From TrEMBL:
It is found in: Cell outer membrane. Residues 56-163 form the TonB-dependent receptor plug domain. The keyword Disulfide bond does not apply. A motif (TonB C-terminal box) lies at residues 689-706. Pfam families: Plug, TonB_dep_Rec_b-barrel. Belongs to the TonB-dependent receptor family. This is TonB-dependent receptor. It is a multi-pass membrane protein. It comes from Alcanivorax xiamenensis. Keywords: Cell outer membrane, Ion transport, Iron, Iron transport, Membrane, Receptor, Signal, TonB box, Transmembrane, Transmembrane beta strand, Transport. CDD domains: ligand_gated_channel (cd01347). Residues 280-671 form the TonB-dependent receptor-like beta-barrel domain.
Length: 706
């Protein structure tokens, strides 16, 4: 979580035998082998998980952190990729820019109802974003914090499983920057640059730009070419005003446009070269644009800080979903192409005003009010089988919240944390359904208010080790189905509530970081959509779930330039009631939660050491090498548990040589060339489809820091 190149959020890992042996090797062996080496000590981990700077060790719930150095070294170029490296996190993704569903510790929507339906909140620089934006690039990001367990106290609804807190780098009072160039197989090219520094006595600025391209790893059988050419153009500009007294203001403007990152549906089994049989050009207008404009003002009083965060976010999406000839022939016996075109847009205005303790205060507290207004559209048109059919849906959401949290020392070694939030949600739905039968208008509204919070105790066992226990309540609000094609489909669905219990420990010394926890979460009315791919009719249903498990993650610096990291996660997540009469078959109590692997883990070793002077004529040469292995166990593809997605292991490596401020490096991803599923869909006992992940690729890069 700290040093460049050392993976600090250590991801998911294996079946019992594989996982335990491999991760224990990395977690425990250095405790005996290390020698004193003061130049290779870990730094303390600072987070803003509770909207103020704190040591991660002092926060009374589990947090995994991926820092900017790890993001760059492991080529985790978007938030989704970063999350895949975190223990206890699972993602269902069709490889598109708007289709990911995140589970933390087995908690999440069983099948999402709409673009707002997610059990994990996404926050960037204090601004809440749509949970479907985890495709957001990690351009010039300082760290990604994954907050586990209900986080409704500070972030309201859509945080029943946890939250993702993304923190970008701020303008500096000294001049700094970097350039990064990469190229690799599948036409993977990346150009990235950042410059930061003072503009005047009171103003500093920072500007970051990234342009990346890559071929889709699925081909089109009709042409032999990649299905799409993926393009990603992103920038962020930030301006910091500091009056050098008690007030600062940070202005941020950012924009990202992604093209060709389309949803992929491939008939299983994929074969050695996954491909679709499609008419060329169907994905030509696929794109997603995300924008954020925010202003954060901080003013320090004698013993507290007042903070105001004002923001406007915008998203536009055009995303064709196409069933190719192979899938349609397997389903209906006729090699045709079927498609629907999704077009979505969203505008959100938000304001958060709070007052809380200063970062240096021994007593943590914060209280505030938040307001947001969102207007969203989600429209679908269909293929030539029903050319008159189109659905136009508009959603309006207003949210208000009052919240507060305090950590109070009961005794020298015992602290109590209590947090509570009350939220009010109002949602309106306005739709027009067009078909050959005519035009139907649909209007509905929904009002809800709810309370979330947590209660925790932290015991300081030693100066380097804390024990904690926490109970929390989370909430995923009800709403309206994005896929409604008739009035009966748009009946509001129920809210989901989660109750969570957790016990854990956190240790930080000069060389060792080790965190562990056991947990149990029960969810009432988790969301599940009943969707018929033949008629496109849908309805909202609910099912209860229960998840329990344990996690262990750590890092250790052996010295002499060697660092190791590892993690292991065990999850037992099951659906705890019956859901009958839905498309695709009944869901039985005792079925496993889809997309959640029982065992997962991660292990890595990193070596960073100076080379002999004038090595091959280089100035101040050094070697930077890393090898990592991530394991994801098998997991069910759907709530009915029709079939399982196979387990897989990903072996990645990086080897770099630095000379002064320049580094040349080679990288390799999925070196074992594993074929694995990003998701799977059951159509019948003989027909399943999904999205394969990218196979083995290698490349080279150059970085220059100034």
């Amino acid at each position: 979580m700290l040093e460049k190149g050392l993976p600090k959020t250590v991801g998911s890992f294996g079946k019992a035998g594989k996982a335990a042996t491999f991760s224990m090797l990395f977690l425990l062996s250095p405790l005996v082998a290390a020698k004193e080496d003061p130049d290779h000590e870990l730094e303390g981990v600072t987070v803003t998980a509770r909207q103020s700077e704190e040591r991660a060790k002092d926060v009374p719930f589990a947090i995994s952190v991926v820092d900017g150095g790890t993001l760059a070294d492991q080529r985790l170029d978007n938030v989704e990729d970063a999350l895949r490296s975190v223990p206890g996190v699972n993602i269902n993704s069709s490889a598109g820019a708007n289709d990911s569903n995140v589970y933390i510790r087995g908690v999440g929507s069983l099948y999402q109802m709409n673009m707002d339906d997610n059990s994990v909140a996404l926050i960037m620089d204090g601004v809440t974003l749509s949970p479907r934006s985890i495709s957001l690039g990690t351009l010039d990001v300082e760290r990604v914090e994954v907050l586990k367990g209900p986080q409704g106290t500070l972030f309201g609804g859509n945080a029943e499983a946890g939250a993702i807190n993304v923190v970008s780098r701020r303008p500096t009072r000294h001049r700094e920057g970097y350039l990064r160039l990469e190229g690799g197989q599948d036409e993977q090219w990346l150009q990235e640059g950042v410059i930061s520094g003072p503009l005047s006595d009171q103003f500093s600025g920072r500007f970051a730009l990234r342009h990346a391209t890559a071929d889709n790893w699925v081909d089109n059988k009709q042409t032999g070419d990649p299905l799409t050419d993926q393009k990603d153009l992103a920038f962020r500009g930030s301006l910091l005003w500091d009056n050098h007294d008690a007030t600062t203001a940070l202005f941020i403007a950012e924009r990202q446009k992604v093209e060709g990152r389309t949803s992929v549906l491939v008939l299983r089994p994929y074969g050695d070269d996954p491909a679709n049989d499609l008419t060329p050009g169907l994905f030509d207008d696929n794109e997603k644009t995300m924008e954020r404009y925010s202003m954060e003002i901080n003013h320090d009083l004698a013993s507290s800080r007042v903070t105001s965060v004002t923001a406007m976010t915008r998203m536009d999406l055009t995303d064709p979903v196409v069933y190719d000839r192979d899938i349609m022939e397997a389903m209906y016996g006729s090699p045709m192409v079927a498609w629907l075109k999704k077009e979505a847009d969203e505008r959100t205005y938000s304001q958060d005003l709070r007052i809380g303790s200063l970062p240096s205060s021994p007593l943590f507290w914060t209280t505030g009010i938040s307001v947001s207004h969102s207007e969203r559209g989600y429209d679908t048109t269909y293929d030539s089988r029903d050319p008159s059919s189109a659905k136009f849906r508009d959603f309006t959401t207003e949210q208000y919240g009052l919240y507060g949290e305090v950590t109070y020392p009961l005794f020298d070694a015992l602290k109590l944390t209590a947090g509570i939030r009350h939220s009010w949600d109002r949602k309106e739905y306005d739709a027009v359904y067009r078909s050959s039968a005519g035009v139907v208008r649909d209007q509905r509204d929904l009002d809800d208010d709810f309370t979330t919070g947590r209660l925790a105790l932290t015991y300081v066992l030693t100066p380097s080790t804390n024990l904690y226990t926490q109970i929390g309540r989370g909430y995923n609000p009800g709403g309206f189905n994005d896929y409604a094609s008739q009035k009966a489909d748009s009946e509001p669905y129920d809210a989901a509530t989660a109750h969570s219990w957790e016990v854990g420990f956190k240790t930080e010394t000069e060389r060792l970081m080790l965190n562990g926890s056991v947990f149990l979460t029960r969810v009432k009315d988790a969301h599940l959509i009943d969707y018929d791919v033949i008629t496109w009719a849908s309805r909202a249903v609910n099912a209860d779930t229960r998840s329990r498990g344990a996690e262990l993650e750590g890092r250790y610096r052996l010295g002499r330039g060697v660092s190791i990291a590892g993690a292991i996660s065990y999850l037992d997540a099951e659906i705890s009631d019956d859901v009958t009469g839905i498309s695709g078959g009944d869901v039985q109590s005792g079925n496993q939660v889809p997309d959640v692997s029982e065992w997962s883990g991660y292990a890595a070793i990193h070596y960073d050491r100076p080379l002999p002077d004038n090595f091959i004529g280089l100035y101040a040469p050094a070697l930077n090498a890393r090898i990592s292995y991530q394991y994801v166990g098998e997991r069910p593809a759907d709530p009915q548990n029709h079939f399982d997605l196979d387990d897989y292991g990903m072996l990645d490596a990086r080897l770099g040589i630095t000379s002064g401020a320049v580094e040349l490096y080679l990288w390799g991803e999925n070196l074992l060339d594993e074929t694995y599923d990003l998701y799977g869909y059951y159509e019948s006992s003989t027909v399943t489809y999904g999205a394969p992940g990218r196979g083995r690729t290698v490349g080279a890069g150059l970085s220059y820091y100034f």
